[in-house]
Design brief:
The chain is built from 9 helices and 2 strands; from the N terminus they run αββαααααααα. It is mainly alpha-helical and 190 residues long.
């Protein structure tokens, strides 16, 4: 069932074929998903020990195929929070300030390319998402070491462009590429 998500994640539409008819339907959506790191849910937990074997962990994580993971722009592992930390007020940027930066970033994208970064085609990525030399070197190294596809390469560039836009930087630098790479660390690469 999960593999059916590949088509709409890639193209923003879904094609239904029945007998002699075929129909295309719009299916642009934002996927937010979560999964445990293992069947018991305690792999890497602070106060409980995982009881899964490495083979069980690999089989469980293998339920999400490489081609499906390749189409998910940001993959972040979130560890358990200690009980004492959970009760404390978290330090960080106010939501209103973040919302203003996001609105400003969106406006920059509209002025630069008349669409948001996630909608850029391959040719538009080459035009609007070109990193500086240090960023390009880092991205090339990551592609080689992590064995990424061309799709992953382009998705990292779009995320890096967004990171740079959020920082009001016109050029994608090494730090923007590094942050985008960190958001792309799939389960099997950790």
């Amino acid at each position: 069932m999960l593999e059916v998500l590949r088509e709409p994640l890639e193209s923003g539409q879904i094609t239904i074929s029945r007998a002699a008819r075929q129909a295309d339907f719009p299916a642009r959506f934002q996927l937010i998903a979560a999964m445990n790191p293992c069947p018991c849910g305690y792999l890497g937990a602070l106060h409980r020990e995982c009881r899964c074997t490495p083979d069980q962990v690999a089989r469980y994580q293998g339920k999400i195929s490489g081609p499906l993971l390749d189409r998910i722009d940001m993959q972040i592992q979130v560890g358990a929070v200690a009980h004492d930390d959970l009760r404390q007020q978290a330090a960080g940027e106010a939501s209103a300030h973040i919302a203003a930066r996001v609105a400003q970033s969106f406006e920059v994208q509209q002025q630069r390319q008349r669409k948001s970064n996630h909608l850029l085609s391959t040719g538009e990525i080459d035009l609007h998402c070109k990193p500086d030399a240090a960023g390009e070197d880092l991205l090339r190294t990551a592609m080689t070491r992590l064995n990424w596809s061309a799709r992953a390469y382009h998705r990292v560039l779009k995320v890096a462009r967004t990171v740079a836009d959020l920082e009001a930087e016109p050029v994608i630098g090494k730090a923007h590429i590094a942050e985008a790479i960190q958001y792309r660390r799939a389960l099997r690469e950790q």
